[in-house]
């Protein structure tokens, strides 16, 4: 029956396991281990554990299992493995499936830590990585070879919000037998149809929209039962990147309200982007939901909405951008996204500070660029706050 549930129902009920007490809210099993009834029983569990039999929290835990089953149901994946952070998910998914001599193709515009994993860590272990401009299908086609094991990209890039065509890249990758791994954070599980569109593995930093209230770090790797249980699980459970039960409980409760939150945030982001378009203090407003975004047609087809993040390129470079940030009264300066609170970030001096200037410019990270993750505040208050802060620049 639960297979036919709509996302809203799955987000509230899928994966629920009740103890003998019949609790309404999911239990937090804050236990590192589990007691066996006998020596024989312990031996049996280590040979093969059943669905509801656990050994050690690094291997699995009832609260974590509930979160894995709920997010898998929501995303339309066969299975999921929950991790300690989004980066444990990205690095775990890639490292668990790759070995020395393998070839990977990745888009160049990546979250800083993802870039570090691909550029510095994987290559240190003998994996060859080719970077492409993710929006240029000809570059993907030229780079993917018959010995390419995986392609990796963020479906919407951070912070410049370029949209990558999942269906088209997946077609190119599958023609050469490569797996498609997508970091889908900016798309969110609410707007994602990544598996339908050809993804083999979808990764989320649960820290972002899944928690959505800035409380905990977490991540999840979604894919086929075979990939999750035979490739990811052995790697994650032995290297230590599993999600804690308390975090899993936070994420479970986050999933219940995620659809409401993310849809409201995306609607406000659209409203703010529309209200600010053409403002005299701005070079441009970048938001995939706007008609003038070069990939508006693609984002409508792929997600049906522009997401919860926009970017403002402030005229006057770093000095003007800093004045703008410091003048905001509601939006806070931080570096999370997907939060209930509106958060502004200056990528050039924070999240992407490490990159050489030429690389920043080639990625569109100009000195005036401000990333804004739109929260749940009243949209008209946010617009008024942004307007007064832009006015204060001069
Ligand atoms: C935040 C983020 C990550 C890393 O997630 P953490 O939970 O902070 O480890 C990876 N990819 C993208 C696109 C992100 O925004």
Descriptive key words:
394 residues, alpha/beta, Aspartate Aminotransferase, domain 2, seven-stranded mixed beta sheet, five-stranded mixed beta sheet, 12 strands, binds pyridoxal-5'-phosphate
Please state the second-level CATH architecture of the largest domain.
3-Layer(aba) Sandwich
Indicate the percent of residues in helices: 40-55%
Unique bound compounds: pyridoxal-5'-phosphate
Please state the CA-atom Rg, rounded to the nearest Å.
22 Å
Strand content: 5-15%
Q: Total strand count, please? A: 12
Relevant CATH superfamily of the largest domain: Type I PLP-dependent aspartate aminotransferase-like (Major domain)
Instruction: Write down the oligomeric state.
Output: single chain
**Sheet with most strands: strand arrangement:** 1-7-6-5-4-2-3
The mean pLDDT is 96
The fold-level CATH name of the largest domain is: Aspartate Aminotransferase, domain 2
Q: Could you describe the largest sheet, including whether it forms a barrel?
A: 7 strands, mixed
**Tell me, what is the CATH class of the largest domain?**
Alpha Beta
Overall structural class, as computed from helix and strand content, comes to: alpha/beta
Number of domain units: 2
Low-pLDDT residue intervals, each spanning 5 or more residues? none
Terminal CA distance reads 60 Å
Number of helical regions: 14
Order of helices and strands: HHHEHEHEHEHEHEEHHEHEHEEHEH
3D structure, described in words:
By secondary structure, the chain is an alpha/beta fold. It has 2 domains: 7-254, Type I PLP-dependent aspartate aminotransferase-like (Major domain) (Aspartate Aminotransferase, domain 2); 258-391, Aspartate Aminotransferase, domain 1 (Alpha-Beta Complex). 41% of the residues lie in helices and 15% in strands. The protein has helices at residues 7-13, 39-47, 62-75, 86-97, 112-124, 137-143, 166-175, 188-191, 225-239, 245-276, 296-302, 317-327, 357-362, 379-391, and strands at residues 79-83, 103-107, 128-132, 148-154, 179-183, 201-205, 219-223, 282-286, 309-314, 332-333, 343-345, 369-373. The strands form 2 sheets. The protein has a 7-stranded mixed beta sheet, with helices on both faces. It has a 5-stranded mixed beta sheet with strand order 8-9-12-11-10. Strand 4, helix 7 and strand 5 form a beta-alpha-beta unit. Helix 1 (7-13) packs antiparallel against helix 3 (62-75), helix 4 packs parallel to helix 5 and helix 4 packs across helix 9. The longest helix has 32 residues, at 245-276. The radius of gyration is 22 Å and the shape is globular. The mean pLDDT is 96. The structure holds pyridoxal-5'-phosphate (PLP). Pyridoxal-5'-phosphate binds at residues 85-87, 90, 111, 113-114, 154, 158, 183, 185, 205, 207-208, 217, 219.
